[in-house]
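Chapter summary example.
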Amino acid sequence: MRNHKVVLNRSLVGVPDPADFRVVDEALPEPRDGEILVRHIYLSLDPYQRSAMAGRHMMGRQPLGAGDMPAAETVGQVVRSRHPDYTAGDYVRHFGGWQEYGLSTGERTSRIDPALAPLSAWLGVLGMPGLTAWGSIIELADVQAGQTVLVSAALGPVGSLVGQLAIERGAEAVGIAGTDEKCALVIREFGFRACVNYRRDGFLEALRAALPDGADIYHDNVGGQMLADAFSVLKINGTVILCGLMERYNDPAKSKPLDLALQIMKRAVMKGLVVTDFEHRRPVFEAAVAEGLRTGRIRFREDRAEGIAATGRHFARLMRGENVGKSLVVLGPE
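The structure predicted for these 334 residues follows.
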């Protein structure tokens, strides 16, 4: 057996292109004492990975160059174990990277239960994106019944769960997305009251029309101009949760800095979200969301590609904003 992994052809500049990546073939690694070998089934692609590849993220402080493999979470099955806490056959989530097989020492590795939810969900609604949404709505914003929550990138794995959790608490959700088709899905599948296409002419007027009484909370996945625009509908003393910076991941130079006068005029509270701050809440989060999945109150959508060779192309699609749901690569059978 051989391992196939994706590495960079060159350092990335701007929006990734499939030609920036290539697949390399190598011998299957052997676990040493205290390690496990995992066959990856699903590979998670997330916008923060672009920033990490440039050395601009907590997950990656050094820019990647030619021959380097991007880091990413994966879900897979242990095929060989020399670790006392894991046995062959266990399903795990770990930072396995853009490859078909990976080694783990057990650090940042967790056993997952496929009986609670589909395996792929442990990278999305029950994974890092899900915990991010939980941290935003439950922990930082503490959304209350009767409030209105505005969400950018509303069809993504974070935004769609932000809206659903807000609705479960008795609030209403209004989304922002990049196409009419995405907005229709946000409303139909996830229960948002309204959704506004930011690429259409008259976006600000449409946003104000969708929120005639304003928004109590804005969950921001984008930054830049989108963040500035959201202040136009934020209520006085409103709350802004700063979660993502999609506008600047590909090219920070193109991102517009926020005019702090907007925050001052709205007397707004702004809170930065770092998902690892809520790791201690993961058991509570997982139990609640798994129950929501079981009953059908919580739903998710995935944007899948098949095979390791599709990884670079699928990542480029994600970073162009063309994904429809959680971006995943299927690497093998369950």
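To summarize the output: Residues 282-295 form the longest helix (14 residues).
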